[in-house]
Backbone:
């Protein structure tokens, strides 16, 4: 039986991943809760896309793998935003 994540789980996982990514990149104070959630969700999409390009099966990974995928993508997403806005 495969565990399918619902929208509520994606919001929680995305929020946690976005918050931790913002702590890693030093942007937590400027993002807020909604920004962290959106960063984590966009990070999940970005991380899933990147890992699928590398041949990693991202669909059957479970909650921990989904969180790590969101975290990876969120850190990359924040890094891209920082590079585009020239903020460190």
Residues:
């Amino acid at each position: 039986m495969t565990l399918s994540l619902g929208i509520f789980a994606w919001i929680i996982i995305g929020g946690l991943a976005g918050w931790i990514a913002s702590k890693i990149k030093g942007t937590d104070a400027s993002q807020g809760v909604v920004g962290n959630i959106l960063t984590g969700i966009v990070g999940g999409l970005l991380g899933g896309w990147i890992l699928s390009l590398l041949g990693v099966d991202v669909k059957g990974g479970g909650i921990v793998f989904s969180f790590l995928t969101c975290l990876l993508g969120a850190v990359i997403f924040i890094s891209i935003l920082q590079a585009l806005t020239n903020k460190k």
User: Anything to note?
Assistant: Helices lie at 7-25, 28-53, 62-85. The chain has a mean pLDDT of 83. The radius of gyration is 13 Å. The chain is about 80% helix and 0% strand.
